[in-house]
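Narrative of activities, Objective 1.

The group set out to show that a structural description can be obtained from nothing but a protein's sequence at a throughput compatible with the screening campaign. Below is one input-output pair from the validation batch, recorded exactly as produced.
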Amino acid sequence: MKLKLSYVWALADQVVYGLSASLNFIVLESLMPRKEYALLAVIYTFVVLYQMVSNAMFMDAFAVNLPETGREHFRRYFLYVVSLFLRLSVILGAVGSLGYLIICSASAQNIEICLILIFVFVSFAMLMMAKRLCYSIDRVSIALVGSVVYVVSYAAAVVAAYFSDAITIDFILTSLGAASLAGSLAILFFLKVLHEALRPTTAALDRQELWVFHRTFATQGLVAGSLKWVPDNALYSLLGVWGTLDQVASYRMASNLLMPFRYLIVTLVNLLLPKFAVSSYRGEAHESWKFIWLLILAFTGLSIGLFGSFWFFGQEIIGFLYSSDPEPVFYSLLVLSIIPALSAAQALTVAFLKAIKRMNDVIVQSLIGAVMTIYPGYFLMSAYGATGAAITLVLSISSMAIYSALKASRLKSLDISH
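Output recorded for this entry:
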């Protein structure tokens, strides 16, 4: 019953957070000039990059190592992980800001831009790390609380900006950072992590052992997370270079309609990775593999249904949601309808590989996806614009899914335990 309830809370969390992410970009399309909208979409991909890399470096390691460290120490362990994250963020923020100011001049405006970007990068990553903590310890309902705080805070800021005629890229990013910070603090408050930070318990962690583990896992996570970002998000930047900002906007508009389903997959992975890790720790990894295939079949059926819906009603849906011409978005949307099935296959099999600590295989599949994005992607995006970007994404995720599924299928029979 507790397991089933976790899935209910996870679904509710996905509806609140994932649907709001899609609605955000759908609404902003009608409130911002098209080029600013496209530029915001590109900047947002880098916010996602930092979040993806941070979670791959720190929270994947946390989830995999927690069964060995002991769930009773999760607060102390999470604070240790946060300290590593913040140290890295200070270094990267300082180096990145210095480089930007040297290239673009140290004006007050550029300093403000640097501060806004550091704030939104760190805050958004912290929100995702706090939500991952909830999934790792089966307190998914608290993740939902954090999502509600985030969505309400951000929506209130956008509504206020709309009536004040103050919707700009800087304002949107600042609001995103403030809402993320509010959501993460709410989660840490209800999990009593803030209390642990202010009044530490006497429980001690083997920091030397943790450092050795996290140093190895973080290095691998950095590579895997960075490479994984290329197919998912670098497409926007590459399309802006090899195509036009107008095509970036069209691709973003098509992607918005698939975002809830991709967030659902991320939510499932966040929920299942700790369970896969426990199964692997007990030598029962093969049990996880059966469940993975059931989920892949379910998402395959979903993709078939989406393709049929978009084929018959796609142009009407696009015309209802957006003020722009639906034609450039329609064909990208049809191609992207297969993405839920492919993403589920890729993400779930990769979660299995992470649970059995096969990070080298995770890196290889990410590298394959990055190469597929850049090499065929150049020709496809140059020739077909937004639709070419959609085809590129399908090719990239397909190649990653095939590799990780073959690797996981071979390794599951070994029943690896720790």
